[in-house]
Amino acid sequence: MNPLNFTLAQIEAFACVCETGTLTHAAKKLRKDRTTVSELVEYLEMDLGYALFDRSSRPLKLTEAGERLWRQAQLFLHEAQMFSQVARQIPEHLSARLTLCYDPFTPRDFLLRLQGALAMRQIRVDLLLGERGDAQRWLAEGSVDVGIFQALNRSINESLQWRSVGSISLAVYARRGFFDEGTVSLLNLASRTQLMPFRELPEWLKLRLQIADDVQRINDAEMLRELLCAGAGWAFLPVHMRPERWPDIVRVETEVGDNGLAHPLVALWRPGQIAQPVLTQFLEAIRDTWTMTS
Predict the structure, then answer these.
(1) Burial of 74 (0-12, 13-18, 19+ CB in 10 A)
(2) Which of 10, 49, 115, 208 is 20–30 Å from 171 (CA)?
(3) Dihedral angle of Cα 77, 79, 81, 87, to the nearest 10 degrees
(4) Of all helices (H) and strands (E), which one includes residue 93?
(5) Are 140 and 273 in contact (CB under 8 A)?
(6) Cα separation of 45 and 41, whole Å?
(7) Beta pairing, strands 249-252 & 161-175
(8) DSSP-derived secondary structure letter, 24
């Protein structure tokens, strides 16, 4: 069977006449001459080999064949519109590249899933490790496009927009035998060295995470692991890092329990820094990826 030789303009003209009821109204809506619209419909009928309208009535009445084809024409035009939207966005997506910075507590499996999800959307992403102070400076300079960090206990300034990512859970970890067996008191925690995985500790976070007077700051994950395994101190660490898999490291039960040791992550970016289609895709990828991760 030979394919039918019809055009998008013919289908559009046919559907518009169906909607308006007359060639004149269809021509006005399509911003074409009445003669042009009439010819487009007539050529379509010639290609099909049957009439679509009963021209003896006013307004025009669809034939039985025309009734059946109208619904298909509407679906066809909807798909054509979707094709047009995707086609216009492809150049932006093909050239899209994001630079993302994240803090030491951001789940690595989440970042890997996010990178893969963005790659499927034709968005390349550079991943840079930093801290909250780094992110604010880099975002202000425009050297990064978006940051994923622990939320502050205050409102975001007007120069940044944000979106919630999810929450991470924290717990106390130490080398086996570092503390006596049983539930560890706050006094005992305060009397031992605390390993802090931050270079800079905002006051609000310090109030939540710092218990010991003696704090050793190590923001290199591998170095922190080595010191923790060597028994150099204890640390509040994200549960998703699974420190209990490290040699001789155990999760410590404390008087604090798990209450209050969950903290939200947020994505931050400067308004206008990211093209809207790319930003939409990025936020959708974050939502879908975090759901898979959690």
Answers:
(1) middle
(2) 115
(3) -140
(4) helix 64-94
(5) no
(6) 6
(7) antiparallel
(8) H
And the tokens for 242?
């699974």
- Cβ-contact 228, 243 below 8 angstroms: yes
Tokens of 21: 């009821």
C-alpha–C-alpha distance, residues 238 and 171, integer Å: 6
Q: Please give the distance of CA 80 from its chain centroid, rounded to a whole number.
A: 27
Contact by Cβ (8 Å): 269, 146: yes
pLDDT along the chain (294 residues), means of 10: 74 92 91 93 91 84 91 89 74 72 88 92 89 79 88 63 88 94 90 86 68 88 92 91 93 74 85 86 91 61
Q: How many CA atoms lie within 13 A of 11 on its CB side?
A: 18
- Among 216, 283, 204, 237, which Cα is nearest to 104's? 237
**What is the residue whose two structure tokens read 């101190």?**
233
Pick the closest to residue 156 from 268, 291, 76 (CA basis): 268
Specify the pLDDT at position 146: 92
> Rounded distance, CA 169 to CA 97, Å?
31
Q: Is the overall model pTM greater than 0.70, yes or no?
A: no
